Amino acid sequence: DSGVTQTPKHLITATGQRVTLRCSPRSGDLSVYWYQQSLDQGLQFLIHYYNGEERAKGNILERFSAQQFPDLHSELNLSSLELGDSALYFCASSVFSGANVLTFGAGSRLTVL
Amino acid sequence: AQSVTQLDSQVPVFEEAPVELRCNYSSSVSVYLFWYVQYPNQGLQLLLKYLSGSTLVKGINGFEAEFNKSQTSFHLRKPSVHISDTAEYFCAVSDTGGFKTIFGAGTRLFVKA
Question: What is the pLDDT of residue A98?
Fold first, then answer.
């Protein structure tokens, strides 16, 4: 157990729908990162939050949004889902020091039918 | 911006043989370098990291990596692999501010008996 908790583990939904993925970082970590892992695109960086504020953005679609709450948990919202959004979504956390080691959760597997 | 290229998508090797997984990076700023491992149905775990100092870095499970600034490479090596090393290995680069960590496409190491 890495200490990073992601829910749900598996999610099956239909095209056009909206889902929310949740992440609780490891105790003491202030940074949360979201990644999308798919067979054709590998592990893509989506977004980074630090203590509630957005710090960096990667290849995140406009249909996707995220936020980090005062208790430091984070949610990734995916809307108007398409078949191509089917992927494993990982959350990682860190203490956000210069030596930025990421601790990953087990992932949320999203299947869009 | 940073980018990472892992030169081999798959590396098959016999048990107890040595292995090298190759990684090249590009960046216009100073970076930190990492190798992570992903076992089936799990999140990524840190193998080792290079921050500064000695260019030869030792990690867990007998792995080591050498940072070569002139060749912008960070190859991962292990002198004798075990069946249990079968996994996917990701090279990653982070800006020194820790804002984003970019991963390579991954190398699948398959250790045969």
Answer: 56
| Residue for token pair 């840190």 | B46
Distance from CA of A5 to the nearest CA of B (A): 11
pLDDT over threshold 80, residue A99: no
B102 shares contact with chain A (CB less than 8 Å): yes
| CA distances in angstroms from B57 to A31, B34, B76, B101, listed in the order given | 26, 10, 9, 19
Distance from CA of B60 to the nearest CA of A (A): 14
Task: Give CA–CA dist B23/B91, Å, rounded.
Answer: 6
Identify all chain A residues contacting B90, using CB atoms and an 8 Å cutoff: 43
Residue with tokens 């045969």: B112
Cβ contacts of B54 within 8 Å, gap of 6 or more = none
Q: Using an 8 Å Cβ cutoff, are A35 and A90 in contact? A: yes
Q: Do A99 and B102 touch (CB under 8 A)?
A: no
Contacts of A79 (CB under 8 A, 6+ apart): A18, A63, A64, A65
Q: What is the pLDDT of residue B88?
A: 96
Q: Is A25:A74 a contact under the CB 8 Å cutoff?
A: yes
| Under 8 Å between Cβ of A101 and A12 | no
